[in-house]
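I trust your eye. Have a critical look at both lines of this record:
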Amino acid sequence: MLVGIIIVLLILIIMSNIDINIKFLKDNKNDEIVITVKFFYGIYKYKKEIPLIDIDIENRDVKLEINEESEDTMTTGIISEKNEKLSIQDILNKIKEIKKIIRKYHMPIDYLIKKSYWQYLYWNTEVGLNDPAFTGFFTGLIYILKTNIFSFLFSKNICFKELDLKAIPNFKSSKVKTSINCIFSIKMGYIIIAGLKFLKVKYL
């Protein structure tokens, strides 16, 4: 009886989805990234909020100040807070580290991308400059950039079921506003397989 229950639970875990929702908002003072991850049929939810980005000029060096807050459904309220200042060199070093990891583990990463279900991508940008001609020009340029980015994602097997890309000119006020909402999911079983592939690359 106990063995049967354990087997059923293992099957339910392996077949369950991890649902990921990434939201990005840039609207003058309201700049933030919100990442929400739901596990095991939505029973457990983890949320990370990253308000972006205060520029601090310190000792003739430009630093980016990032404040993070994390919370989950297994605790009450915020579980961690983080305040970090990064110099331009720190950011470049982190980018180099990420590129190095992607090159080393590209096979399991490609596997995860291929097995993910890319459900929805909404990317809206509103552009307003002082000159109407420049506003129209940069709005068209941004839309071309978005379509090129989407073509690149498509070449990497990232194909969203629903896609909404907008670039809207604002001829009444001077502002640049961008909002992104991305939703995708992957089964826990595929993550376990990808984890084994990571271990194989790391130790073999």
